[in-house]
Structure formats: structure tokens, C-alpha cells
Amino acid sequence: MAIASADTAIRSSSFSRVLIYLVLLLFALFYLLPFGIMLVNSLKPLEEITGGNMVSLPREWTIAPWLSAWSTAQIGVEPTGLRPYFINSIVMAVPAVALSTIVGALNGYVLTKWQFRGATLIFGLLLFSCFIPFQIVLIPMARILGILDIAGTTTGLILVHFVYGIGFTTLYFRNYYAAFPTELVRAAQIDGAGFFQIFWRIMLPSSGPIIAVSCIWQFTNIWNDFLFGASFASGGSAPMTVALNNLVNSSTGVREYNVHFAGAIMAAAPTLLVYIVAGRYFVRGLMAGSVKG
Amino acid sequence: MGFLDINNVTKSYGAVEVLHKVDIEVQEGEFLVLVGPSGCGKSTLLNMIAGLEGITSGEIAIRDRVVNGVHPSKRNIAMVFQSYALYPNMTVGQNITFGLEMHGVPKADRDRAMADVAKLLQIENLLDRKPGQLSGGQRQRVAMGRALVRNPDVFLFDEPLSNLDAKLRVDMRTEIKKLHQKLGTTIVYVTHDQIEAMTLSTRIAVMYDGYVQQLGTPKEIYDNPANLFVASFMGSPSMNVLPARLRDLNGEIHAEITGAEDQSLHLRIENAPESYRAYLDAEVMLGIRPEAITDPEGADRNARNIQSLHNTVSVTEPAGADTFVSTTLSGKDCIARMRADADVHPGQAFDFAVNMDKAVLFDPKTEERIG
Ligand SMILES: Nc1ncnc2c1ncn2[C@@H]1O[C@H](COP(=O)(O)OP(=O)(O)OP(=O)(O)O)[C@@H](O)[C@H]1O
Ligand SMILES: [Mg+2]
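^ inputs. structure came back:
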């Protein structure tokens, strides 16, 4: 039935379909254009760019700008390239994503399956934390990092991102677990499983899609963050985004646009990769949460 | 003291009391069915026995041990849920042995127990599948296997058959009954299906609005309902309840009802208890089961007091084995259950045979049984 009607629907409106695809293609090209130009220019010698030739393909292909951006370019005052900062970002993002996802999952589990007095209020407050702008937490956060004596370190940044992410991850997991059958938890209780055993053996194995959502969301936000990175991590512990800014703003000599483009692509690559690898789980997880919840 | 004692148990959610002083004593090996309409508190009571809901007041004891506040896993009970609640990420085998694993039973013993249960339920070939790859009936078996493997003192079932289609439901019903006869374990079983209750139970607790309306064997409940609710809830089609007046005719008590043409009809009541006299000339509710109204040839040969009733037939509904015949009595549709080949036709007058041995009377105000 469904196939037959879809069939006729296609035939009766094949013209408008072609039109839709054309428009979509146009939009896709439009959005890909900047990326394309960045890529092309990162593979050119600097003279070709300064010679006023931004859009055309390189006459002479080279990966020198990439090598320079990665290991020798001037970042601020040190000629280290972006590599140490890329590592900083990884060291910051991976634990922060993991911690906030695990805590979000635990929160969601407790809020839906171990209902206690005031659970709704606490969830409301956590939800509210999603709407607090970055700028508002800057000063209190700086104070706390100071007290903990981790100001200006990657550890400090991990803490900031972890805490700031809990609101979002809790929201995801709470909505996902609200649709998770409570009878399963009760059955496990009768079977003698404890709080963490139920979480570990029953809940988590069924949470694949929402874990993907939480990880992608958190990774993208943490990796791309500039404000917290610029505010709480200085010099050698700065994340990639801050280093990229320093690369572009290093004012010695000529502006090496090709190196800047290569660096920018490097900074964007991990989030792109995450979307390509886990993107379909992202969509599936969002659907699961919204349709059932 | 019974095997499972439910002692004056109440349950409140905030200010709302949803179970009122429930008092049931279950003997070892009994099959107790809690039956009642939706929202009457069956699941709540079962969950309290399981330890999944707190007890507001009163006491529940299993094997003379008070279990109020004891964790569900330490009550030695097993439960089969309406949705089966099979762990989706585990295989059938893992589902069955999860409880044993959590209780620290060694792997070799777990495998042996699983093999026994799988054999008993004939699910040996399913042990490596995930629940998502099973049919409804197979899931039902696995859920029972998970309960059986623990060898519990008491089995708790919460509407285990309500997710199955009609045919499978009847098959699984028979299987549960066989299992009970074979193992002799104590079972508390929740259902809103009165046929399930009648066929499975050794005793039934009919519940309504948080009260146990009547507790008794299926036969007691069916033949001697304690009040109008029990009378009309149990049995299908349900009991005919007719407004009637009690009359003393020549020293014998009769129930007076009106026929289709407003004519008065009298049904003699034999061996009427003294308590009936208090209701003479007052209105009562007369309850007669459909199978107690038949054609004269189809009447119960062991009945002592068959009364003839001449009235017009309004509708006949052949249903294969039986024919259901409607007639208007005291302004109400009254259903008679007759043999398939009874010679009845709509619009005709007919001599109904009413087995007054089985008739019961209710007080119209209190709705309680008279007598
Ligand atoms: N958490 C709760 N808070 C408040 N009231 C509740 C709660 N859980 C159940 N109730 C009420 O308790 C009553 C009994 O519920 P219960 O689930 O035991 O009904 P049931 O007999 O099992 O019905 P069904 O056949 O629909 O499953 C219902 O009126 C219900 O509204
Ligand atoms: Mg229920």
C-alpha cells in the first residue's frame, strides 16, 4: 500500500522533485564553497594567493602550508605549530565528554527510575543551567578554579566543560530513559541487581543512540569553544581554537594565508570526523528520545 | 497462619487511600487470583507483596517471616510482568540466569538450572536468541522461565497473558495451569479477565475500588456472590439482575416480576431463609444466571425447583454451542442460555424454565446479598 502510493506520488510530481533536488544541490554547493576555497588555498604557495588568485586551483600543488601549520608556524611567541594545542584540545575534550556523558546518564537514570521527592525540581534546575549564557559563569568559574588551584590548566578546562555540559547530557538521558520501561528495572531489582548493576548491565547497553547524541553534542561544543579556552587556559595549555586565533593574529612578517587556511581545517577536522562517523546515530538518537519521550 | 499472609494491609498515595484493609491468607500450593476492573488496586497489592511498593500500614508475611521493608530480591519471590520485561540486550539464556548470577550462584549450577527450566518450558532451541527475535508466546515462556529458575516460595504474575492474541492466551492459560499442577508452587496471579480467574484459580479475590469484595473458591464466587458487584462482574454473559418484589402466596415466598406485556409473573422460592421475610412486599434485586434460564427440555435434571415462565422472546443469538435468547423481564433485557437446537423464535411466546435453586437476592440499597 505505502509503496504503491509513494510510487504514484513520485510520478505525479517528478518535475517538482527535480526542482527540489536542484535547489538543495545549490544550497549544498553554497555551503561547501568556503570549505572548498579554504582547502584549495591551503595547498597553494603564498605568492599565488597574494597574486590575487583566490578561487582557481593551484598552479603548483604543495603541502608545505600544512606542515608549517602543524609543526613550525609561529603561535603567539613560540614557533611550535598547532600540534601541541591540538593535543591540548584532545586531552581536554575526551575526558570532559566522557565525564559529562557518564554523569548525565547517571542523572537521567536516577531522575526517571529512582524517583525521589523534589526530582522534578532538580531536573528543572539542571534544565535551567542549559540556558545560562557562557558570559555569566565566567567570573564565578574563575574564582572556583582559583580556589581549586587549577586556574590556567587543562585540568581546569576539563572541569569547566564537564560541569557546563551536565545540564545538556542530563536532559538527553532523562528524556531517553523516561521512555525506557520501568518494569525492566523492577524485574532486575527482583533478580537482585543493585543500583549500579542495573545501570551498568541493563540501562547502558540499551543506550547506544543517546550516548552517541550526547558525545557528539558535547564534543562539538567543547572542541569549538573559544571563550572558556581563552579565559581559563593561558599560554601552553590553550586549546586549539585559541591557538588558531593566535596563529592568525601573529603579527610578525607577512600574513601566511595558506598556513592559516590549513590550520583552520585542522581545527575543524575532528568535529567533521565525529559527524561523519556517528552522524546517523545522532539522528536516530534524537528521534528515539523525541518520539517516545 | 498461612504461607503468605496479607494482614490488614492498606496503601495510600499521599492523602488518597487506594487499598483499604486487605486481609488475605494464602495456603501453600494455592493459586490465588486477584481479579477486578482496571484501577481497583490489583497491581498495587501484587507490587506490595513483591516489595516494589511500600506498605502504608499492615503486614505482609511469607513463610511466617514479616517482609515489610525487606528488599524484593530477599523475599524469595519471582514475578512475571505484563510486558514480560525481558532484558533486551541479553540472550534468552542470560535473561534466565541473570537472577542467579546476581545471587552469586556459581556458573556450573546456573547452567544446570537453566537447562532444567529450558527443558520444562521447551525453549531449549531459543537460548541463544535475543528477546527481540522471539514471538509473543515464546517471550511469555522465557519470562516464566526466568521466574521458575529461582525456585521461589511465591510466584507473582501481573496480567501475564494480556499481551497475547486470543488463541494463544487460551493455550498459555492451560500451560500455566499444568505448570502449577506439576510444581505445586504458591501463585498469586493478577488479571482483569474473569474467565482466566475462574479457570486458573483455587481461590479468587474479587476486588473493586480498593476493597476485597469477596474471597472464595471459584464455585463460591460464582454461585454465591456476596454482592451485586461480584455477581455482575463474574460470569459471561453476566448475571441477569431484575427488580422484583417478594410476595407471600399461600405461605410460600414468591418473587414477583413483570413480563414483556406488563403481566405479573411469580417465581416460587423454595426453602427461603427466614431473612427473606423482612423484605416481603419490598423491592429486591433478583439475580439469575443466563444458564439457569433454559427451554424446558434443556433444564438441569438435578434441579429441585424449576419454575415455568411464559414470556415473549425478543431476540435470539445463535453462538455455535449455545443459543442466547433475550426476553424482557421487569423492563430489563434478560438473557437465557439454551441448547443450540432449542426451538425458539423471536416474537413468539415461549415457556422458559427457570432454575430457582440458583437464584440469589440482593438488597437494592446496600447491594449486599440477602440470606
Ligand atoms: N504512583 C501513584 N500515585 C497515585 N496513585 C496511584 C499511583 N499508582 C497507582 N495509583 C492509583 O492506584 C489505583 C490502583 O492502581 P493499580 O495499578 O493497582 O490498578 P490495577 O487494578 O492494577 O488496574 P489495571 O487493571 O488497569 O492494571 C488506581 O486508582 C491508580 O490511579
Ligand atoms: Mg495493573
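Residues 159 and 225 of chain B are 23 Å apart (CA to CA). Chain B touches chain A through 23 residues (CB under 8 Å).
thumbs up if we can close this ticket
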